[in-house]
Task: inverse folding
């Protein structure tokens, strides 16, 4: 996106003392708090804490058993493991979109398109309703689904390379709408009739019951969580690699990056492809859990919500994206089946209204997101100083 | 593909497309104005339109009018139309200012990153449309038949009705006045100054905060007029009417060159026509897809829209 | 900054706590059981919010009315109402359905209203063995999945389509018919059957986007006018139909709009205005409530302060069918399911008997046509043959 209008610097006289004071303050801020403490620990402690955190995440389906706190956390109107699974694919989408928006700075409003491509490929290959009549298993269809999603990222990314900021946003939005309309209106993709009997992931318990049945969503959540952990590891590595640094350069200043020898086209396409791959992952998991899907799932609001999640959580920060993705799924689900204390109507009618208000409040108090990217937080601090008096 | 149908119906499709396009263009002005000055997609603009579309219905409701009423006498129709317009303009204007105050100003004071603005706007949009949705039980609300469409003149199979003429004339007039205002008046000069270079404008004594409010207000006024026209043309409004048409209006704004007033007019009319032609040619289900395909194609050739970005600035 | 974060989290926690407390309050309703067959729940599963909530609300209100009347007769809250909002979306339905089956007091389900969400949720109900009676999901293939708990209290699209086609051909004697649909599973399926029945009388076809996705129908209207058709069959729901009817009238088209049960709703007249809606024909695989007698129509109005909508009466019947079964001592989902497979229940809208696939017994399939009158309500027109 283009820079905000007020960003040009107010007269900045480089008084040495003042600058160093500011830097000192930054350093203090940066090293303060949980995160600073975390950064000071030795790598083994850090790794141990990460593992502990992952284990806790795997135990989340049973959080309702904790007295007092547990029942406040679990959702009422929707099965808690299902809510967790929903969160898991929202988190996946947020992680993927974070690569595109947060790392590479490409504003993508149509991210749900890749989710749809992944889910539809699986459905086409595996559902008995499909014209292909292949009826593959879920596991066989997944790699194809991911490959097609990635390819679609490249195909849609390529023509948009010239576009900047908001133009990119509307074009990606357009692509997602085109995908939705094509899914609705072509015979092959079955529109609203959808694909039924999409197979679930394989595996059986000792007694012959399938692990991934219809009645229990816990295995799906665990599968989702495992995928998320793999994606986090992959994305972290990428971000710390040459690719990640190139993204950063592109995001901050595309021209400067190009002059410095960063191949912007290549790395932008990388961002699109990786984002699409992760979005596709969300899609194939969704199809595998759902068993049935049709064109109604892939509405535009879905993309917008995920984007809201990424920015709300902290664009450019993996932990932030996870938190944001989880919240956009959790808040509405948590509001289901609850009565408001005044009119005694169910709050679920209000859930998106409340959600909208929550988004505004969070963004006003944390413009850089709940868990901001460290670099972004510093930028913001600089800009806050520069802000010209408005009235 | 139904070419003969398109050729046969070309006249009627053109006039209905122009009427729809005029509404889209008026709506698109709000996006374009705010973008021109702040370089932001004002996502909540759709809800500014939505509340306008309800405001005039509520006023007409005071007079006991609903979708089943008979059409009143000409004189009272004019009065009612004016009242409805005023109500819609006032409510839309207030909503636009309110959105700016709640969702944008606090962020601007903190100089937040541009994405944050987009997200608060999405939040505001969700909040308003969903609140309306809850309050109306997500039902549709019918519009009183203030204007019984009558053919004013007929060319071939093209019947031009009084309503279509009213919509197109009112839209063009509003845009002409807006254009004059921005290009000729003192306040308009302030808007152009801030759009060109906010900091220099501030140094030259332009009150930036006031200019920004003014821009939101102007966008709101235009959306209010568009909302009344929409009500009369479609005959129904609903909590998500703003969102639906908002996507089209935003597309139109980008198509013409966002930030460019005449671009919004061109984009809106073009989109209205194209949607009708495409619906006739490929089937009504492809109407929206066609507008997005056109948008993508045009942006590939002209990455800043047909007329380019400019709100009173000479820039490619 | 940490303070701010703490405050934000604190704020969320407070919201959660308030909400949780409210939920606890609502849970602690009276639960004292009067007689042996009390203390159970019947569930409604369907859209109560979201863009397709209207049909869901119609059904839920009919369902709840039946249970309220039953409880009043018993003098206590014998059977509790449990509502599950799926928003009508297949993506949301499974999670809500799993929540439903976790409640072991639920013996039976009225819903899901839409075919799409049925595909997603019914496998879960089937796994849990809870019987469902859907008052409005008419997709033909639903009964071909081998679900034992699936019951459909209305005729499927295969019955309604030919009836609509026959009516257009034999009663209206239309020679030029324009067929359009909204691409929903329901609308597309129905219009395909109608097209087949009408054969060469169909002069042109078109498709629109779904309810709430499109409001400007100028191009469709122009096609209808140009085709010189005297009848437009629209497979879709009442809202789009109302907008299309209004636009057609505005454009001076004098023909008749015909549609299926998805259009049989006062909402159509609300969108079109009564003057334009008058004479619009809808078919419905149901009997007119006033024919069945009883006080349903007035009771419904008294309870909800709105007129009964499409399928309110079928939902009322479905709930009463369950209640009769529970009253007879079928107090487990399994027993209730067995009861459903044998019962022959005479309700206000129809008499119900299910085949082994859960379809309505062909002898009881009735399709009526209804006509919009000058007050915007649908009045029964005539019964039409389905073959």
Result:
């Amino acid at each position: 996106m283009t820079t905000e209008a007020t960003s040009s610097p107010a007269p900045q006289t480089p008084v040495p003392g003042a600058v160093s004071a500011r830097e000192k303050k930054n350093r203090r801020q940066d090293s303060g708090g949980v995160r600073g403490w975390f950064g000071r620990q030795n790598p083994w402690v850090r790794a141990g804490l990460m593992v502990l955190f992952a284990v806790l995440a795997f135990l989340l389906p049973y959080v309702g058993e904790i007295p007092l706190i547990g029942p406040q956390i679990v959702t009422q109107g929707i099965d808690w493991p299902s809510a967790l699974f929903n969160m898991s694919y929202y988190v996946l989408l947020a992680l993927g979109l974070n690569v595109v928006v947060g790392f590479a700075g490409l504003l993508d409003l149509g991210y749900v398109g890749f989710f749809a491509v992944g889910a539809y490929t699986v459905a086409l290959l595996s559902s008995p309703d499909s014209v292909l009549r292949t009826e593959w298993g879920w596991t066989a269809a997944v790699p194809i689904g991911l490959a097609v999603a990635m390819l679609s990222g490249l195909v849609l990314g390529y023509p948009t390379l010239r576009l900047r900021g908001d133009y990119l946003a509307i074009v990606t939005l357009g692509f997602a709408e085109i995908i939705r309309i094509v899914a609705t209106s072509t015979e092959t993709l079955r529109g609203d009739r959808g694909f039924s009997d999409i197979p679930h992931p394989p595996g059986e318990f000792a007694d012959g019951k399938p692990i991934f049945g219809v009645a229990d969503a816990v295995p799906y959540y665990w599968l989702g969580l495992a995928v998320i952990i793999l994606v986090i590891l992959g994305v972290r590595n990428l971000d710390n690699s040459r690719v990640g640094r190139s993204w950063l350069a592109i995001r901050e200043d595309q021209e400067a990056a190009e002059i410095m020898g960063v191949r912007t086209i290549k790395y932008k396409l990388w961002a699109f492809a990786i984002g699409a791959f992760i979005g596709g992952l969300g899609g194939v998991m969704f199809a595998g859990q759902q068993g049935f899907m049709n064109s109604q799932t892939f509405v535009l609001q879905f993309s917008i919500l995920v984007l809201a999640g990424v920015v709300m959580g902290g664009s450019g920060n993996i932990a932030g994206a996870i938190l944001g993705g989880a919240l956009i799924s959790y808040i509405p689900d948590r509001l289901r089946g609850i009565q408001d204390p005044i009119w005694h109507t169910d709050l679920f009618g209000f859930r998106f209204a409340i959600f909208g208000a929550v988004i505004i409040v969070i963004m006003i108090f944390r413009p850089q997101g709940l868990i901001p990217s460290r670099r972004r937080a510093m930028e913001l601090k600089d800009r806050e100083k520069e802000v010209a008096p408005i009235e | 593909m139904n070419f003969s149908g398109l050729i046969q119906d070309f006249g009627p499709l053109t006039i209905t497309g122009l009427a729809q396009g005029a509404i889209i263009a008026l709506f698109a002005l709000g996006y374009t104005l705010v973008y021109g000055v702040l370089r932001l997609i004002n996502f909540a603009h759709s809800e500014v339109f939505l509340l306008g579309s309800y405001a005039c219905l509520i006023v007409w409701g005071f007079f006991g009018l609903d979708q089943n009423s008979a059409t009143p006498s000409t004189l009272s129709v004019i009065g009612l139309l004016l009242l409805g317009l005023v109500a819609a303009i006032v409510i839309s204007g207030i909503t636009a200012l309110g959105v700016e105050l709640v969702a944008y100003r606090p962020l601007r004071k903190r100089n937040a990153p541009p994405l944050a603005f987009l997200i608060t706007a999405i939040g505001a949009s969700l909040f308003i449309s969903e609140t309306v949705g809850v309050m109306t039980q997500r039902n549709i609300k019918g519009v009183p038949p203030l204007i019984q469409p009558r053919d004013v003149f007929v060319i071939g199979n093209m019947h031009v009705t009084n309503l279509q003429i009213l919509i197109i004339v009112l839209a063009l007039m509003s845009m002409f006045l807006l254009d004059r205002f921005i290009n000729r008046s003192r306040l308009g000069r302030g808007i152009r100054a801030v759009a060109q270079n906010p900091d220099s404008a501030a140094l030259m004594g332009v009150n930036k905060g006031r200019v920004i409010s003014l821009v939101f207000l102007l966008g709101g006024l235009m959306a209010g007029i568009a909302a009344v026209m929409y009500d009369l043309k479609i005959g129904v409004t609903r909590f998500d009417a703003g969102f639906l048409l908002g996507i089209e209006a935003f597309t139109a704004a980008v198509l013409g060159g966002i930030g460019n007033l005449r671009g919004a007019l061109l984009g809106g009319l073009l989109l209205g026509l194209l949607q009708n032609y495409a619906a006739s040619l490929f089937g009504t289900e492809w109407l929206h897809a066609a507008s997005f395909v056109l948008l993508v194609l045009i942006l590939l050739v002209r990455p800043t829209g047909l007329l380019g970005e400019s709100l009173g600035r000479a820039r490619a | 900054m940490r303070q701010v974060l703490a405050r934000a989290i604190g704020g969320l926690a407070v919201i959660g706590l308030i909400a949780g407390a409210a939920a606890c309050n609502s849970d602690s309703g009276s639960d004292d059981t009067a007689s042996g067959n009390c203390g159970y729940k019947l569930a409604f599963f369907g859209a109560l919010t979201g863009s397709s909530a209207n049909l869901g609300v119609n059904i839920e209100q009919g369902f709840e009315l039946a249970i309220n009347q039953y409880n009043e007769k018993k003098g206590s809250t014998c059977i509790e109402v449990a509502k599950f909002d799926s928003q009508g979306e297949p993506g949301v339905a499974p999670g809500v359905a799993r929540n439903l089956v976790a409640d072991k007091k639920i013996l039976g389900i009225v819903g899901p209203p839409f075919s799409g969400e049925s595909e997603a949720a019914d496998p879960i109900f089937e796994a849990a063995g809870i019987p469902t009676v859907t008052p409005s999901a008419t997709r033909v293939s639903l009964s071909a999945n081998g679900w034992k708990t699936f019951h459909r209290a209305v005729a499927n699209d295969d019955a309604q389509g030919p009836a609509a086609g026959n009516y257009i051909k034999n009663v209206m004697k239309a020679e030029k018919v324009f067929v359009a649909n909204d691409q929903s599973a329901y609308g597309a399926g129905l219009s395909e059957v109608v097209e087949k029945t009408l054969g060469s009388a169909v002069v042109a076809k078109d498709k629109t986007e779904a309810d709430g996705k499109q409001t400007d129908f100028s191009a469709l209207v122009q096609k209808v006018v140009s085709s010189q058709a005297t009848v437009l069959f629209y497979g879709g729901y009442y809202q789009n139909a109302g907008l299309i009817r209004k636009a057609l009238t505005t454009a001076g088209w004098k023909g008749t709009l015909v549609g299926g049960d998805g259009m049989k709703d006062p909402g159509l007249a609300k969108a079109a205005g009564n003057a334009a809606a008058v004479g619009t024909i809808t078919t419905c695989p149901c009997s007119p409530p006033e024919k069945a007698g009883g006080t349903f129509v007035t009771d419904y109005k008294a309870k909800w302060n709105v007129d009964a909508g499409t399928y309110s009466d079928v939902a009322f019947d479905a709930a009463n069918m369950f209640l009769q079964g529970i009253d007879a001592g079928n107090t487990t989902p399994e027993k209730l399911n067995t009861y459903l497979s044998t019962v022959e229940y005479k309700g206000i809208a129809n008499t119900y008997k299910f085949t082994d696939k859960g379809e309505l017994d062909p002898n009881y399939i009735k399709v009526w046509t209804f006509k919009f009158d000058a007050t915007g309500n649908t009045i029964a027109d005539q019964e039409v043959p389905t073959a």
